[in-house]
Design brief:
DNA-binding, transcription, 9 helices, Four Helix Bundle (Hemerythrin (Met), subunit A), 3 strands, mainly alpha
Length: 214
């Protein structure tokens, strides 16, 4: 794979880090996979220094593990850690959905509708890679609709750590997940905070393969 980075004005370490994070959370690099500096630098068309710095920063976020003599690899999560991450994310997504339903920001709701409609088109086209991006866009737009900047920051960090747990493997799973997005949005638009919270929490548990509230 060659993913040479195009022209950008962002600091190179940040660009490399964002590229690696996307490859990790999308499942390109599986849990436990080795992250070899030389190979990554060649794939991205950069020197090894920004790759090394990016790996260190991702290690600080918990996505990467760096061990002496072995180097970097995608962090492995125990079943208990996965359960805890899903539990916390479900709780925060529920709170945020409730806030979005109370706040009723017209601009943010319009953005959510647009994201949902574009996702419908991508599902119809069977574009798995594009729908992964739209999934992230939906959750980011819903976070903005909640209007709580502290909660947004916490949720973004948690999404980075949990996204690799939620990679859908087939279109049927994608369709079901997207239907759940539509249900959440309908509850938010209706101003039903309790229902929006319930559906948001169920969505996270379902995506993580756990029974609600387990």
């Amino acid at each position: 794979m060659n993913k040479a980075l195009g022209a950008t004005h962002a600091p190179l370490t940040k660009v490399v880090k964002d590229a690696l994070r996307e490859q990790i959370v999308s499942g390109h690099y599986a849990s436990g996979a080795r992250l070899v500096e030389k190979r990554i630098s060649e794939d991205l068309g950069v020197s090894r220094m920004p790759v090394r710095e990016a790996l260190r920063e991702l290690a600080a976020e918990g996505l990467v593990t760096i061990e002496p003599r072995r180097g970097a690899s995608v962090s492995l999560l125990s079943d208990g850690q996965k359960h805890e991450l899903i539990e916390v994310r479900a709780t925060l997504e529920a709170l945020n959905a409730k806030l979005a339903a109370r706040r009723q920001d017209p601009e943010q709701l319009a953005e959510l509708r647009a994201v949902l409609e574009l996702g419908d088109d991508m599902i119809a086209a069977g574009d798995m890679a594009a729908i992964h991006d739209r999934n992230d866009a939906f959750h980011e737009a819903l976070a903005r609709a909640g209007g709580n900047s502290v909660l947004q920051e916490i949720m973004q960090s948690l999404r980075d750590k949990t996204s690799m747990l939620f990679v859908a493997e087939d279109m049927e799973a994608v369709r079901e997940s997207w239907k759940q997005h539509a249900d959440i949005l309908r509850a938010v638009i209706a101003g039903d905070g309790e229902l929006a919270a319930l559906l948001a929490a169920r969505h996270v548990y379902a995506a993580g393969g756990l029974p609600p509230g387990s």
